[in-house]
């Protein structure tokens, strides 16, 4: 599933910095059907557009990774659905920032949100819906599933310039390590989710109209597997930030570990996804994911 990993990139943020406590049973009484609604929506979208899973994973990463500053908790917003907000006449939002121009499949979140609002109005955040969708993107593509921590709130701030905080495809291992460490991320996390999603802005489908474009990172581009790591060891990578993983003894060892074991890769991936998605600091529950209340 190298394409997914490639599109997800570095995805994680340490839960030690989480600004809001999340729980596994948050919607058990208020909207128990929320996750199944999202799963059905993602599955239906995948039938007509094979790029949807990778798009949703990448969208989740781009939402969670920016404006995360462990040294200033007041601005630690992370996974707050700010990537879903539309630009206005007074503000250019994240989705229109340089690295995000090629993000697509926003309509999947819109459809899921509309269905959930019809059953549980004002209860489920857009941030939680995006986290559910990213999980479903993996599980419905043959990968592992996991219990997504729930209870995020949606943020009200979305600025295009903030997207420049995403890792660059030209980063060397020191730059990658620094970028992740600033967000409470380890080298293990970095390798588990491979590090080049941000760079795919130049080759991924534009908006949500192109359904078969993109760059294949391995021989199984629409399946969740460890093929990316196998090719990386063979020197077959698109970006210098990928090859950089082989320049550090620890990260090289992890690449080899995941290349040899799908099971070890999946365990590390799930752990990383949960940590990343657990950092949040929003303020509201939007009724429509593209606009603040």
UniProtKB/TrEMBL annotation:
Binding locations of Ca(2+) 1: 63, 78, 80, 82, 94
Residues the entry annotates as binding substrate: 167
Cofactor: binding details: Binds 2 calcium ions per subunit. Binds 1 heme b (iron(II)-protoporphyrin IX) group per subunit.
Superkingdom per UniProt: Eukaryota
Plant heme peroxidase family profile domain ranges (all copies): 21-293
Compartments where located: Secreted
InterPro entries: Haem_peroxidase, Haem_peroxidase_sf, Peroxidase_pln, Secretory_peroxidase
GO annotation, cellular component aspect: extracellular region
One Pfam family hit: peroxidase
GO biological process: hydrogen peroxide catabolic process; response to oxidative stress
Residues flagged as site, Transition state stabilizer: 58
Keyword terms, alphabetized: Calcium, Disulfide bond, Heme, Hydrogen peroxide, Iron, Metal-binding, Oxidoreductase, Peroxidase, Secreted, Signal
Residues annotated as signal peptide: 1-21
Binding locations of Ca(2+) 2: 218, 220, 225
EC number: 1.11.1.7
UniProt GO MF annotations: heme binding; lactoperoxidase activity; metal ion binding
Active site: 62
Disulfide bonds: 31-120, 64-79, 126-289
Co-factor(s): Ca(2+); heme b
Catalytic activity from the UniProt record: 2 a phenolic donor + H2O2 = 2 a phenolic radical donor + 2 H2O
Function, as annotated: Removal of H(2)O(2), oxidation of toxic reductants, biosynthesis and degradation of lignin, suberization, auxin catabolism, response to environmental stresses such as wounding, pathogen attack and oxidative stress. These functions might be dependent on each isozyme/isoform in each plant tissue.
PANTHER family: PEROXIDASE 25-RELATED
Similarity annotation: Belongs to the peroxidase family. Classical plant (class III) peroxidase subfamily.
Name the UniProt record assigns to this protein: Peroxidase
């Amino acid at each position: 599933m190298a394409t997914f990993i490639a599109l997800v990139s570095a995805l994680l943020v340490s839960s030690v910095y989480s600004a809001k406590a999340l729980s596994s049973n948050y919607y058990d009484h208020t909207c128990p059907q929320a996750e199944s609604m999202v799963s059905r929506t993602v599955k239906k979208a995948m039938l007509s557009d094979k790029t949807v899973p990778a798009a949703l994973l990448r969208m989740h990463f781009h939402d969670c990774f920016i404006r995360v500053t462990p040294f200033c908790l007041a601005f630690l917003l992370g996974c707050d659905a700010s990537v879903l907000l539309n630009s206005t006449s007074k503000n250019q939002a994240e989705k229109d920032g340089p690295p995000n121009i090629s993000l697509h499949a926003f309509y999947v979140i819109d459809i899921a949100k509309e269905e959930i609002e019809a059953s549980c109005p004002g209860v489920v955040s857009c941030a939680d819906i995006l986290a559910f969708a990213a999980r479903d993107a993996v599980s419905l593509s043959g990968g592992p599933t996991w219990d997504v921590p729930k209870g995020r709130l949606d943020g009200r701030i979305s600025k295009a310039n903030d997207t420049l905080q995403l890792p660059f495809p030209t980063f060397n291992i020191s730059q990658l390590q620094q970028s992740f460490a600033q967000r409470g991320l380890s080298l293990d996390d970095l390798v588990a989710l491979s590090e080049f999603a941000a760079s795919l802005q130049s080759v991924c489908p534009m908006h949500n109209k192109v359904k078969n474009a993109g760059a294949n990172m391995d021989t199984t581009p629409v399946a969740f597997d460890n093929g990316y790591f196998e090719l990386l060891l063979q020197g077959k990578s698109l970006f210098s930030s990928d090859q950089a993983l082989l320049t550090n003894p620890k990260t090289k060892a992890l690449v080899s570990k995941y290349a040899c074991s799908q099971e070890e890769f999946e365990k590390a991936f799930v752990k990383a996804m949960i940590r990343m998605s657990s950092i949040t600091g929003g303020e509201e529950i939007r009724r429509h994911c593209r606009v603040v209340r």
